[in-house]
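Entry type: protein chain
Record version: 2
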Amino acid sequence: MEVSTKQLQIAELAATRPEESFTSLNHYLDMDWMKEAYRRTRRESAPGVDGQTMEEYGKELESNLQELIGLAKSGRYHAPPVRRVHIPKGDGKETRPIGIPTCQDKVLQRAITMLLEPIYEQDFMESSFGFRPGRSAHDALEYLWKQCMDNQVRWILDVDIRSYFDTLDHAKLREIVSQRVQDGVVRKLIDKWLKAGVMEAGELSYREQGRPQGGVISPILSNIYLHEVLDKWFAHEVKVRLKGLGFPSEICR
């Protein structure tokens, strides 16, 4: 069975059982799933702390993936530190810290992301666009334009969450994930990535909050968190108190 077909099955279950959590997901992590995860990982991505490139990792792909499956499912996988670099942000006066995982870590993060996306795509709101498959900034602008024209919108509030990735609450994220995902293998891997160290200028550090931006799994974890604390909060707490119509539109996260 193709990976896309398996993802469709997960999505259908998630859509028909919105209040249930998934207790068994790691059985999907077979060789076909991992090969697809490798295929979906960018070949030109920069190497992590071990210096290994995706091309080098792919030379012994079968054995590398088989070993990775065993490490992940047995609980013996150790998330390596991410290599942190800084890139210019906005007008160039500030920089954005980017964490670069190792090739092996990227592939495993992609594999877990491929498990999480079919579930949470059924939960996320229509007005959410950032970091979602099949959605672009152009789609977000079209949605915003349509809402403004159809509802005669008079006010637009532009808000930016400063240093979101650096201040992510680990305990709260674990709590939110547990509402939909109870698979022990998946939960432990996410926890290990949250606790993974950061290597910068030759120094290794660990943070009790935040998640390095740039990791393969960071966008989906970001969306899971913001769906609960921002999107649902607006829909259930803010929107009902507005005198007129109101709608959220998370274009960029």
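Comment: The chain has a mean pLDDT of 89.
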